[in-house]
Specification:
- There is one protein chain.
- The chain is mainly α and 462 residues long.
- The chain has 20 helices and 2 strands.
- Helices cover 65% and strands 1% of the residues.
- Strands 1-2 form a two-stranded parallel sheet.
Length: 462
């Protein structure tokens, strides 16, 4: 007789610690605590539910470090978890995904760092081909053909491979890891690796067999990954490539009938169009994004889309329309967070909205207001978002120069240069290059001289 399946024991200790917070609010607390110690966990309301029902009997090591940071006087047993040895000591040959999270971590890290061939090995897709002849075609989803990326040979697929929800989770985590690395280091060093991961996601989508639910999730996740790669292209100043990736993501969103993914694509497309000097396209994209997001119950998403619209109006020098969009963005932002807010919006806090407003006032030539908002963005930015700290500081240098404050421009330019060792972003380097160009000939101001010397050294060492 087969042994009876154990019924999970609810974790009452963690439920008591959550108190009056909703699962989504509790997950936000855990994610913020993780960032304080340099961890990046994908905690959400669903994960909290799995803990409280006892489905997760013992957290993985990343979560354990976060929990010990939050509750330093409590052991895992005090938090209601089983000993790791008890959970890992199973004899079943194929343990359920949710009880083997350390193995998950290895597999998704392989996905992120190793590209398609490594993931093929992990997922069992690297069996010898039936025929001895080598294949001659490369795998590429539409929209990737123009990228100067080294494409690996196609993966041999002797038979369709069944793709399940656990595979989708690996792709979802790769998206999170790419975003986290971008927040800390910028896009330049990530672009090619992320492109490899995207090709692998489409390989699973195009070559695998799956249920309708898995297909929907995999489509949406591949779309999110395409957006992430598009953003990396944008931040690396590969604007045409970014537009191609966003077009791929939009097509995927439409096929999946996924309004949340569609709103995300339009949000990023609006930002790209503004930076590429196409403000009317930026407006259309921002407005289309607001239409897609209307029924998603996320005021923060609507706020960000209103900020994207404001940026388009600012470049068009329509001050009244820009101010109306800014007012709407702030009103929506002040309504607070909700469980419906997309996970990718973790960057959109008080610092980001101040930074985006600074860009609007800068485009309108309102240098005092632009400087004030850029200074606020710099002061409020969380340490984990190193790329954004460098961005806001470079923006502040630009705005101080706009209002004629040469010393302030040099001082903040030097602060931004000091962050270049940690951040690889062609967009930020381009901003500093423009500030340096305009400050040439002003060496008599000591702060300017120090900035130019530091900037020239950084460029020479790059």
């Amino acid at each position: 007789m087969a042994p009876a399946t154990a019924v999970p024991t609810p974790n009452t200790a963690m439920r008591e610690l959550r108190g009056d917070l909703s699962p989504g609010e509790f997950a936000t607390v855990i994610r913020r605590a993780a960032r304080q110690i340099g961890e990046h966990v994908s905690c959400d309301a669903r994960y909290i539910g799995r803990i409280e029902t006892g489905t997760i009997r013992c957290p993985n090591y990343a979560y354990e470090r976060v929990f010990r940071h939050i509750w330093p006087d409590r052991s895992l047993a005090d938090l209601g978890f089983s000993p790791r040895t008890a959970v890992r000591g199973r004899s079943a040959p194929h343990p359920p995904h949710h009880l083997d999270e350390e193995n998950d971590d290895v597999r998704r890290r392989t996905f992120l760092s190793g590209g398609p061939t490594a993931l093929a090995t992990v997922l069992g897709l690297d069996a010898p081909p039936r025929a001895a002849t080598a294949p001659t075609a490369h795998f590429e989803p539409s929209g990737l053909a123009a990228l100067p990326l080294p494409l690996p040979g196609p993966l041999p697929l002797p038979a369709p491979r069944r793709v399940g929800s656990s595979d989708v989770r690996y792709v979802e985590q790769a998206v999170r890891d790419i975003r986290s690395a971008d927040d800390a280091h910028g896009a330049d060093t990530l672009f090619e690796r992320a492109g490899q991961s995207l090709r692998t996601a489409y390989l699973l989508l195009n070559e695998g067999e799956y249920s309708l639910d898995t297909e929907r999730r995999l489509q949406s996740t591949a779309g999110e990954l395409a957006i992430s790669v598009g953003w990396l292209a944008h931040d690396s100043q590969r604007l045409a490539d970014a537009r191609s990736f966003y077009a791929e993501a939009l097509a995927t969103a439409r096929m999946a009938n996924d309004p949340a993914l569609e709103a995300h694509v339009f949000c990023n497309s609006a930002f790209l169009a503004r930076d590429a000097g196409r403000p009317r396209e930026a407006l259309r994209a921002a407005q289309a994004g607001q239409s897609a997001a209307r029924h998603l119950d996320s005021d923060r998403l609507l706020s960000l889309l209103a900020m994207r619209e404001a940026g388009g109006w600012a470049v068009l020098r329509d001050r009244d329309a820009c101010e109306r969009a800014l007012s709407r963005a702030h009103l929506l932002f002040e309504r607070g967070e909700s469980e419906a807010d997309p996970e990718w919006m973790s960057f959109y806090g008080e610092a980001e909205i101040a930074g985006l407003e600074a860009q609007c006032w800068s485009a309108l030539g309102e240098w005092d207001r632009a400087s004030d908002r850029a200074a606020l963005a710099t002061a409020l930015q969380e340490p984990a978002f190193v790329r954004n700290r460098a961005l806001y500081t470079a923006e502040l240098a630009h705005d101080r120069l706009g209002r004629g404050d040469l010393a302030g421009a040099g001082e903040h330019g030097s602060a931004a240069v000091a962050l270049l060792g940690q951040v690889r972003s062609a967009r930020i380097r381009g901003m500093l290059a423009e500030t340096a160009r305009r400050l040439r000939g002003c060496h008599a101001v000591s702060e300017v001289g120090a900035f130019l010397a530091g900037y020239d050294s950084a460029v020479a060492a790059a």
